[in-house]
């Protein structure tokens, strides 16, 4: 079963399914609280005094369980919460109080002596921005400078104000706030704990897929011992214009580093392309399909650095009838509209997506899942909406990438990605598989170099070792 990205509602449904399967919810709460206590111990090994702030719901219940275990392990604990818990949370509170640990009102919060704070005010049950004593507690915890371990989510996200955590223990599954900004920035390091939730309860194919090392490894094309350059995928890159001489070269490099057997670069005659020894050059007087056929490619990447010639280059390339990646200057509505139902992957960033959807780029960046879905519906192609994180859509399917970082926000990075996806298409992968693996692998290569100052060609150069790491099971997702 693929891993899914949950919403609060979807997690509540999973919760109910677990209970319907006969799994007692109190067991989930016990596992959740214990996971939080363990996270405190592991991430702050020198701390001996832990203060817990808890709310009225199950998030608070998890906090009471964490407090009980920390107390039993010999920590000094102080617990602050309002009255009025019900159900499991009330039980968890009683179990804590049975050990003689008093629960004091939130208004009495005194952080003097605390070494770590556990934030269990509110989790997925948040229904409105924090206000009143909750907002005050969040502000005081933030101002204290103490390390914070958040239960499930930093209380208050995605609204402001919210708690800023150093570690967030995601319970049972990752939620949107763990992946998307600005909420993600409040989570600090994210660790996922399964809390014993039965797999069957978590099955939710309608939710976005989270790209995992296991799932992506399974998609990597094999390289048979008797491979030759004509058998593992020939890629045509079509782009380049006056000053954009690096973009198509980076796509070509990305394709080769992702395993293409042969890469041909078609570009307007007279454009001084960056030298790449291994690339076959195809200078053209005009963008014509007949001329592009000479490459005998199995997939094409078009648009990178093509400037005003982008649409023309794309029309010629699409006439080949090959699986295609459309990027940058090829991403105009008239061109993409002609691709419905064809094996075409488009790779817009929010600015290009705005052009295709006639919306504002900020709106797209704020709701990337909805935008990717809208693009897939409107144009009937496979969509890679680039960003932090990149999201993908095809038909009713959605996926969210889990690799890459802000270090990748530099020029030419998207060109390399186009080349990677084209190489995977040429190797025979379906567009959805090529797009998901391409995006994941590209981000993984970035992570392995991983510092600000990263250049696009360095990401291309890191693709082979990222592949090796993926194959040899040496890749851990960010939530482990
Ligand atoms: N998903 C799961 O399967 C499990 C979830 N558990 C925990 O349960 C949490 C969800 O529990 P609940 O649904 O009870 O919800 P929460 O405990 O997250 O929040 C609901 C409570 O917060 C109050 N509240 C909502 N917005 C508020 C605001 N702005 N200011 C002040 N109070 C506010 C509500 O009135 C209610 O009392 C998860 O985040 C997780 O910590 C665990 O107990 C174990 C299992
Ligand atoms: N903050 C970020 N987190 C993760 N990945 C990022 C981030 N910023 C950029 N990237 C990745 O870098 C690439 C940038 O592509 P793009 O904007 O098209 O750049 P260019 O047009 O210069 O090639 C995309 O793959 C994108 O997902
Ligand atoms: K919380």
Automatic annotation (TrEMBL):
Domain YjeF C-terminal: residue ranges: 212-470
Keyword NADP found: yes
Record-listed E.C. numbers: 4.2.1.136, 5.1.99.6
Binding site for K(+): 59, 119, 155
Domain YjeF N-terminal residues, every copy: 11-203
Parts of the chain that traverse the membrane: none
Residues binding (6S)-NADPHX: 58-62, 123-129, 134, 152, 247, 303, 349, 415
SUPFAM superfamilies: Ribokinase-like, YjeF N-terminal domain-like
InterPro entries assigned to the protein according to its UniProt record, in alphabetical order: Carbohydrate_kinase_pred_CS (IPR017953), CARKD (IPR000631), Nnr (IPR030677), Ribokinase-like (IPR029056), YjeF_N_dom (IPR004443), YjeF_N_dom_sf (IPR036652)
Top-rank taxon: Bacteria
Names of the cofactor(s): K(+); Mg(2+)
Gene3D superfamilies found in the cross-reference section: 3.40.1190.20, YjeF N-terminal domain (3.40.50.10260)
GO MF entry, a single one: ATP binding
UniProt binding sites for AMP: 386-390, 414
Cofactor note: Binds 1 potassium ion per subunit.
Record keyword GTP-binding present: no
Keywords assigned: ATP-binding, Isomerase, Lyase, Metal-binding, Multifunctional enzyme, NAD, NADP, Nucleotide-binding, Potassium
A biological-process GO annotation: nicotinamide nucleotide metabolic process
Family (UniProt): In the N-terminal section; belongs to the NnrE/AIBP family. Belongs to the NnrD/CARKD family.
PANTHER family membership: ATP-DEPENDENT (S)-NAD(P)H-HYDRATE DEHYDRATASE (PTHR12592:SF0), ATP-DEPENDENT (S)-NAD(P)H-HYDRATE DEHYDRATASE FAMILY MEMBER (PTHR12592)
Subunit composition and interactions: Homotetramer.
Record function comment: Catalyzes the dehydration of the S-form of NAD(P)HX at the expense of ADP, which is converted to AMP. Together with NAD(P)HX epimerase, which catalyzes the epimerization of the S- and R-forms, the enzyme allows the repair of both epimers of NAD(P)HX, a damaged form of NAD(P)H that is a result of enzymatic or heat-dependent hydration. Bifunctional enzyme that catalyzes the epimerization of the S- and R-forms of NAD(P)HX and the dehydration of the S-form of NAD(P)HX at the expense of ADP, which is converted to AMP. This allows the repair of both epimers of NAD(P)HX, a damaged form of NAD(P)H that is a result of enzymatic or heat-dependent hydration.
Protein name as it appears in the record: Bifunctional NAD(P)H-hydrate repair enzyme
